[in-house]
Amino acid sequence: MKIEHIEAKSIIVPSNIPDKDYVVNPYTGCQFGCLYCYATFMGRFVNEPRNNWGNYVYVKTNAVELAHAQLSTWGDKRKRSSILLSSVTDPYHGIEHKYLLTRGILKTFAEQKYPGPISILTKSPLVLRDVDLLKQLNSEVGLTITTTDEHLSRFLEVKAPLARRRLETVSKLVQLWIEFFLSSLA
């Protein structure tokens, strides 16, 4: 796996996704290497061929600082914008254990009491690590489950967590949400 450090110019960028105003991608590339991934085009921005998807990750080492700087300039109206983590890479693929960029960005949103909706799309149980921050935000989490056939999953989603682990993660998130909801009623 090729890991490169880069500095980004911005981290919260306007989205082309119809129901999201902005996207945040702390990494370029994805360790999961899913065969069907639409984001293979991202390699052109870092001079990687499409067929090398899943074999490299470019770490935007200044992502947390950029998120803080960008949010600090936003007015109240703009802070109601919807944000998606991440649109072209999984924010919780393996390298997140080391670099903590997704966690740092979520912490920035929490510290600045960001009121707008924040969505996370992942295949990783690592999202559970950040429940403490997600509870402080207007957040939602989606877990992609392409198939529950583990053999097919291993073929299509080469290095992604198996569907069984993702289903367990969904179950834990639902349990935590229910507990959080009930405690807010007390």
Can you list the strand order of the major beta sheet? 2-3-6-7-8
- Quote the distance from N terminus to C terminus: 49 Å
Count of DSSP H/I helices:
6
Tally of DSSP β-strands: 8
Q: Nearest-angstrom radius of gyration?
A: 16 Å
* Mean pLDDT across residues: 92
Helix percent reads 25-40%
How many domains is the backbone divided into? 1
Residue stretches low in confidence (pLDDT < 50, at least 5 long) are: none
Main β-sheet: number of strands, strand sense, barrel status?
5 strands, mixed
Q: State the shape.
A: globular
> What is the H/E order?
EEEEEHEHHEHEHH
Oligomeric state of the chains?
single chain
Structural class: alpha/beta
Task: Determine the strand fraction and express it as a percent band.
Answer: 15-25%
